[in-house]
Amino acid sequence: MTDLLEVRDLRKNFGALAVTDGVDMRVAEGELHAVIGPNGAGKTTLIAQLSGQLAPDSGRVIYAGRDITRADMAARVEAGLARSFQITALLPGMTVLENVALAVQARSGSSFRFWRDAGSEEITNAQARMALDEVGLADRAGALASALSHGEQRQLELAVALATKPRLLLLDEPLAGTGGAEAERLIALMQRLKKRLTLVLIEHDMDAVFQLADRISVLVYGRIVASGPPAAVRADPAVRAAYLGEEEGA
Amino acid sequence: MSTPATRTLAPRLSAALAIFVVMAAVPPLALALDDPFLMVIASRMLVFAIAALSLDLILGYGAMVSFGHAAYLGIGAYAVALGARWGVTDLLAQILLGMGMSAAFATVTGAISLRTRGVYFIMITLAFAQMAYFFFVAQSSLGGDDGVALQARSTLLGLPLEGDQTLYYTILGALVAIYAGLYRLTLSRFGRVLKGTRENALRMQAIGYRPFRYQLVAYVIAACLCSVAGVLLANLTEYVSPAYMSWHRSGELIVMLVFGGIGTLTGAVAGALVAVGLEELLAVFSEHWRLGFGLILVLVVLFSPDGLTGLMRRLGLRAPGLRNDGEGRGDD
């Protein structure tokens, strides 16, 4: 398998704190690559740099053979690299359908159109509905995003990301704050997605991670301390010391 | 929210239509009452409705709180004075001139202002408007601080805009056209992107937009539309002065939006009507009318933060049969 994403010696400091301290990472096309690590390991900061929200101090991000280190978020999304947010970032005053339709609109024609009613664009709406269908939110299309339950908002986050038609999707704790049936539905969805997308998954739920991941990288204090198939990572003594042991003890 | 086939007229649209119909009836009414002053006040209401509408596009839909929007009112007014000097007396040509000057000023100042956020945006737009203000104060050939009286009103397609009725209906026509255009715009793709950016700019970037471009275009459109109000205001008063673009004036435009409710367009129109009306009404009672004006503003902000639009919506909720679906903050 070829690498879709390659991260080389990525560094980011906040003041004296090295939040990303020389991260090297490869994500193969088609795999689900989980990034785990204790709180404060710099997982969200890493995602922010991969998605273009935050510029690294040094190092390179190579996506599909192209150096995208300096590309902005919009350019990365256009190239097929999308993300979801850990803290739900929706358009609260707009409907569920509009939230997704805007993502469809971004990749289908100009948005410098000033006259025609965007709400009556059949094709845009149909594609938005497909994304909603995929996450199981189709029946809530007309509701305001702010009126959704927490679990539904997590589903909508995914639907919006999917509507950008990504090739590589960065998922920042998609299960955060969900439980039971909601979490199971999202896990089932990720099972389906990994058949057609490359996924980078940041997640705290270890059961989900070991169930889903093809490969796991363990991030501790801004460094990758281990990377490999789940079984190997689970057995790695450095990982057990730094992370899993602590988790099991908790 | 948008099922065009079954959609009836949105409440805010019918409210705007009602306002336009009532305003269209003012000239005959003023004639019947033999009260020409009524026409003057109503004309002012309409002119400021245009200015407030244009501000609502960026403040209400784009969440760009400009404290310098009156600059474009002034630039529009000076387009009339400059036009007349250069022999350009046609209203449409003067509007184009005003729009051109406004677009140039807004593109430069907007591109810089949009690098800032929040209170800095407010302050930088104020600063640019003050620069425009002092620029015109310094033009002694245009009367400097005192301004300049116009020799005559503009002409429209060769016909002079004589008679208050002609001018009045010209202003009303411009208001209706601009309202209609902005109404379409807010429902369009562009309008959606603008609203999305208001809601969450980071999210918009994460789905592939560069919000800056859309915000800047909206900023320039709003400036151009406001300059139309300036052209009409100059014709109404037959006078042009830097006072049109003072920061008080910019503040008044924001107050109009607060009165009417931001981000609905109809609220901007209603707010301008109410604010100009109150100003005239309170001035009858006392020269300290601003005190009363301020008191009313405080009451509006405390008891109906969404202004008149919010008040109407709440009344609508209580009245059976007038159901409000509660979606889209009234901008559906």
From TrEMBL, chain A:
<dbReference type="GO" id="GO:0005524">
    <property type="term" value="F:ATP binding"/>
</dbReference>
<dbReference type="InterPro" id="IPR003593">
    <property type="entry name" value="AAA+_ATPase"/>
</dbReference>
<feature type="domain" description="ABC transporter">
    <location>
        <begin position="5"/>
        <end position="246"/>
    </location>
</feature>
<keyword id="KW-0813">Transport</keyword>
<dbReference type="InterPro" id="IPR051120">
    <property type="entry name" value="ABC_AA/LPS_Transport"/>
</dbReference>
<dbReference type="GO" id="GO:0005886">
    <property type="term" value="C:plasma membrane"/>
</dbReference>
<keyword id="KW-0067">ATP-binding</keyword>
<dbReference type="InterPro" id="IPR003439">
    <property type="entry name" value="ABC_transporter-like_ATP-bd"/>
</dbReference>
<dbReference type="InterPro" id="IPR027417">
    <property type="entry name" value="P-loop_NTPase"/>
</dbReference>
<dbReference type="Pfam" id="PF12399">
    <property type="entry name" value="BCA_ABC_TP_C"/>
</dbReference>
<dbReference type="GO" id="GO:0016887">
    <property type="term" value="F:ATP hydrolysis activity"/>
</dbReference>
<keyword id="KW-0378">Hydrolase</keyword>
<protein>
    <submittedName>
        <fullName>Lipopolysaccharide export system ATP-binding protein LptB</fullName>
        <ecNumber>3.6.3.-</ecNumber>
    </submittedName>
</protein>
<dbReference type="Pfam" id="PF00005">
    <property type="entry name" value="ABC_tran"/>
</dbReference>
<keyword id="KW-0547">Nucleotide-binding</keyword>
<dbReference type="InterPro" id="IPR032823">
    <property type="entry name" value="BCA_ABC_TP_C"/>
</dbReference>
TrEMBL record, chain B:
<feature type="transmembrane region" description="Helical">
    <location>
        <begin position="42"/>
        <end position="63"/>
    </location>
</feature>
<keyword id="KW-1003">Cell membrane</keyword>
<keyword id="KW-0472">Membrane</keyword>
<feature type="transmembrane region" description="Helical">
    <location>
        <begin position="212"/>
        <end position="233"/>
    </location>
</feature>
<dbReference type="GO" id="GO:0015658">
    <property type="term" value="F:branched-chain amino acid transmembrane transporter activity"/>
</dbReference>
<feature type="transmembrane region" description="Helical">
    <location>
        <begin position="253"/>
        <end position="276"/>
    </location>
</feature>
<dbReference type="InterPro" id="IPR043428">
    <property type="entry name" value="LivM-like"/>
</dbReference>
<keyword id="KW-0812">Transmembrane</keyword>
<feature type="transmembrane region" description="Helical">
    <location>
        <begin position="70"/>
        <end position="88"/>
    </location>
</feature>
<feature type="transmembrane region" description="Helical">
    <location>
        <begin position="288"/>
        <end position="305"/>
    </location>
</feature>
<feature type="transmembrane region" description="Helical">
    <location>
        <begin position="166"/>
        <end position="185"/>
    </location>
</feature>
<dbReference type="GO" id="GO:0005886">
    <property type="term" value="C:plasma membrane"/>
</dbReference>
<dbReference type="InterPro" id="IPR001851">
    <property type="entry name" value="ABC_transp_permease"/>
</dbReference>
<protein>
    <submittedName>
        <fullName>Leucine/isoleucine/valine transporter permease subunit</fullName>
    </submittedName>
</protein>
<dbReference type="Pfam" id="PF02653">
    <property type="entry name" value="BPD_transp_2"/>
</dbReference>
<feature type="transmembrane region" description="Helical">
    <location>
        <begin position="119"/>
        <end position="138"/>
    </location>
</feature>
<feature type="transmembrane region" description="Helical">
    <location>
        <begin position="94"/>
        <end position="112"/>
    </location>
</feature>
<keyword id="KW-1133">Transmembrane helix</keyword>
